[in-house]
Amino acid sequence: MTSPKKNLTFDGLVDSIKKVDLQLAKQANKAVNISLTLRNWFIGMYITEYELHGADRAGYGENLFNELAAKLAQHNVSGCRFRQLYNYRAFYRAYPQILRTASAKSKELLHTIVQPAEKLRTASAKLAIDPAKLVSSLSYSHFELLVEIEDPLKRAFYEVGCIRANWSVRELKRQIATLYYERTGLSRNKKKLASLVEQISEKQEARLPIRDPYIFEFLGLKSKEVMGESEIEDALLDKLQEFLLELGYGFCFEARQKRILIGSKQCFVDMVFYHRILKCHVWIELKVDEFNHEHLGQLNTYVNWYKKNVMAESDNPPVGILLCTQKDHALVEYALAGMNNKLFVSKYQLELPKKEEMQKFIEEQMREVQE
After folding, report:
1. What does the pLDDT look like over 196-228, one tens digit per residue?
2. Count of domains in the chain?
3. Would you call 286 helix, strand, or coil by DSSP?
4. 259 lies in which domain range?
């Protein structure tokens, strides 16, 4: 019998440490992602069941998510802001078949669910992929992108792509944006296209993705060093709200993360004010990113929707303000949708804060948040 010491070299030692580090990092990553995914699925399930069967649900109505987010914040429950709660409910509705995985792991948490056997049969008939495989292979951030795909076949296509090629979240987003599903349908040689995509796609790292805001919120990490975009955005919106109200320009605060329904899609506007001098609503979107035309198009859509569906006859057309940031650079764009009246435009330019003033404020606040 050969002594293991004879084969132990420095290079072998390095190789052994690399292997154990990689293997256990994979296990840790998978364990955290599975727990986070199931936790968010459970939250979505509880909300859905409460909306259907809650004894006192009528007392909350449209304010349910605001009230729930506020109450959970008091109890220091992470990752349960207004918009996130909506996303968890959408996640549960899109993936009821996860019940099989959830019931196997956490039976005691299923105390509110109604007729689970019926839900299982309905879900299993629609989707062939084993839910346990989905939950163990995809992060919650993957699921958030997949939930937005309404067509079950198209969603299953991207699920398979994620599992087979081990796509990162960024890669999944890129494949959806570049119409990989549609291109495959039009391609004569589908296998060749799939092979090419897999060769150039970005893979999911084995390391624990602590810079994912969902992960570090779930784990209770508070270090500003790993602060996610949503945390920075919240801090800036808090300051921005105070700043605009203190200016004395006539801003009256109306809503934060205001929910609007455009067709079947739920959208959320970061901040809504009513301007008593201009007699119009002012919609503000903050992007922790450099300016691009997609941001402006999104805000312009919101403004046009409001003008058509909500604006009172006595009001002037709404105004959209887009704030974009990137470190010490700030760019402010005003969306003047439908504002053809030159006199009103002049008054608008006079009464709203100057672009230079807003830019200076954003730059100062970004420095404070990053420090």
Report:
1. 677 665 555 545 444 455 665 666 554 343 334
2. 2
3. strand
4. 229-370
CA distance 299 to 284: 8
Q: Are residue 257 and residue 154 in the same domain, yes or no?
A: no
Single residue among 179, 206, 225 that ends a domain in this structure = 225
Measured CA angle at 319 (ends 314, 322), to 5 deg: 165
Question: How many angstroms separate the Cα of 24 from the Cα of each of 28, 133, 164, 206, 251?
Answer: 6, 19, 21, 9, 54
Tokens of 281: 């609503």
Looking at the structure, do residues 97 and 214 belong to the same domain, yes or no?
yes
Instruction: Say which residue, 42 or 32, is predicted with more confidence.
Output: 42
**Are 72 and 217 members of one domain?**
yes
CA dist., res. 343 & res. 179, Å (int): 45
Question: Mean pLDDT, to the nearest integer, of 61-72?
Answer: 89
Task: Please give the Cα distance from 337 to 116 (Å, whole number).
Answer: 48
Write down the pLDDT at residue 44: 93
Whether 276 and 199 map to the same domain: the answer is no
3-state secondary structure the chain: CCCHHHHCCHHHHHHHHHHHHHHHHHHHHHHHHHHHHHHHHHHHHHHHHHHHHCCCHHHCHHHHHHHHHHHHHHCCCCCCCHHHHHHHHHHHHHCHHHHHHHHHHCHHHCCCCCCHHHHHHHHHHHCCCCHHHHHHHCCHHHHHHHHCCCCHHHHHHHHHHHHHHCECHHHHHHHHHCCHHHHHHHCCCHHHHHHHHHHHCCECCCCCCCCCHHHHHHCCCCCHHHCCHHHHHHHHHHHHHHHHHHHCCCEEEEEEEEEEEECCEEEEEEEEEEECCCCEEEEEEEECCCCCHHHHHHHHHHHHHHHHHCCCCCCCCCEEEEEEEECCEEEEEEECCCCCCHHHHHHHHHHCCCHHHHHHHHHHHHHHHHC
